[in-house]
């Protein structure tokens, strides 16, 4: 540091980003957090540690931790392995929007 005070700027949308993309990103983040909470709740209900579930699902404990906190977006394959490891069945459905 050169002794200069640290100033904080404002965040502006980049040239390739619009408000719809920002809203979509927030919605995706919320979905990731909901998924993570569901995985964690099921894991705890089964009495499994993160390490145990990660081993059963063929993933690392840090990756499972990131998934449970919404910081990792899993592939369909990972979701399927997690479902099996949680003694559950993965079901994906599409329904008519309200």
UniProtKB/TrEMBL annotation:
Domain HTH cro/C1-type: 39-97
Gene3D superfamilies for this protein: lambda repressor-like DNA-binding domains
Record-linked SMART domains: HTH_XRE (SM00530)
CDD domains: HTH_XRE
Pfam family of the protein (one): HTH_31
Record-level Gene Ontology MF annotations: DNA binding
Name of the protein: XRE family transcriptional regulator
Source organism (scientific name): Actinomadura harenae
């Amino acid at each position: 540091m050169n002794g200069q005070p640290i100033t904080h700027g404002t965040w502006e949308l980049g040239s390739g980003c619009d408000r719809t993309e920002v809203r979509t990103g927030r919605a995706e983040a919320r979905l990731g957090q909901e998924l993570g909470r569901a995985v964690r709740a099921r894991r705890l209900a089964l009495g499994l540690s993160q390490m145990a579930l990660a081993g059963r699902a063929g993933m690392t404990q840090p990756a499972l931790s990131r998934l449970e906190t919404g910081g990792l977006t899993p592939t369909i394959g990972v979701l399927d392995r997690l479902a099996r490891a949680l003694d559950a069945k993965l079901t994906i459905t599409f329904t008519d929007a309200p």
